[in-house]
């Protein structure tokens, strides 16, 4: 049984009313996650986020303010069957792509990553995006949302 709490750093990249997400697929179909991942020992949060975005998006990012903090305690959510021992704290930063990026091409994508996709914020409810509870804030004024979102999925 894993008793550690994982720290994950994520990027909220919004341009022209679209959000850039990592695309994956499982038995239920396509789903989307925010770019980013686990912080390694000795890395700052910004270093971890830059490394993860370089791997998953293939490009440099500019990091701005911390926008959200969310916890994910797996035993409390719909994927408890396989996530029961997962406890993760995610720190989500508003980011921008380096404007010199000709195209997004992952250099070292996650094993189950099949691509990246810009999704229109106006249609975000049509997609399976995790954490799902974040959709309500993405459709409205992000700046009115609380920073700490709690244990959500």
From TrEMBL:
Domain Nudix hydrolase: 4-140
UniProt xrefs under InterPro entries: NUDIX_hydrolase-like_dom_sf (IPR015797), NUDIX_hydrolase_dom (IPR000086)
Keywords: Hydrolase
Cofactor(s) annotated in UniProt: Mg(2+)
Pfam families linked to this entry: NUDIX
Coiled coil: none
Domain of life: Bacteria
Hydrolase in keyword set: yes
Protein name: NUDIX domain-containing protein
Organism: Litchfieldia luteola
């Amino acid at each position: 049984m894993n008793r550690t709490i994982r720290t994950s750093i994520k990027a909220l990249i919004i341009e022209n009313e679209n959000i850039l997400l990592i695309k994956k697929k499982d038995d239920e179909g396509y789903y989307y996650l925010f770019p980013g991942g686990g912080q390694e020992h000795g890395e700052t949060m910004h270093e971890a986020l830059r490394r993860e975005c370089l791997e998953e998006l293939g490009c440099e990012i500019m990091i701005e303010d911390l926008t959200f903090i969310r916890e994910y305690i797996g035993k409390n959510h719909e994927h408890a069957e396989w996530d029961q021992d997962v406890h993760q704290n995610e720190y989500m930063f508003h980011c921008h792509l380096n404007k010199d990026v000709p195209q997004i091409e992952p250099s070292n994508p996650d094993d189950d990553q099949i691509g990246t996709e810009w999704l229109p914020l106006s249609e975000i409810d049509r997609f399976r995006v995790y954490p799902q509870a974040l959709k309500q804030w993405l459709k409205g004024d992000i700046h009115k949302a609380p920073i700490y979102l709690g244990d959500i999925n």
